[in-house]
Specification:
Blueprint lengths: L3 E8 L3 E3 L16 H6 L1 E7 H8 L9 H11 L2 E5 L11 E4 L3 H10 L4 E6 L1 H9 L5 E7 L7 E2 L10 E8 L5 E7 L1
Parallel strand pairs: 1-6, 1-7, 3-4, 3-6, 4-5
Antiparallel strand pairs: 2-8, 7-10, 9-10
Amino acid sequence: MRKIILDLAVSLDSYIEGPNGEYDWCIMDEDMDFPGFLNNIDAIFYGRRSYELFGNYTPADSAPALEKEIFALSKAKKKYVFSYVLESIDDPSVTIINNHFHDRVKAIQQEPGKDIFLFGGANLITNFVNAGLVDEYRLSVHPIVLGAGKPLFADIVKRVGLKLTGTKTYRSGVVTLFYSRA
């Protein structure tokens, strides 16, 4: 069965966005090998707002080569957008899921393929955690204290036991923590 992997950046004080929704504090160094992660998945789960921000993002011509590579790899994946608002998107690589999300996710996991990247946003992550659908947590803790913003975990209904399966420290000071469900 395909694993659902939550992989995201988090500040030292557990925020995934700054107080104005900014991500400018996120570090993306080559030694973090995010393209390697993307090569091991073939589908991305987005919430509506996250898809609108990043699902069709195209880096500027002047963007670093790593940014261009990451977004080219992301565009090549099958995308699922969880939304009660959207009814259609003019992109054949996108499937909208607006009802029976638990059953739909379980069916997608049974399909042949690589693992699935749970991109977010916060509401989608909360729903997946509460439904017990996250198989692996990869949290990249960035060396910054934001003081305010959108917290990583909010409105979690019950404890989720995790087992630390690895850590990796990068020259930028980012530390990635790898957890599986206990």
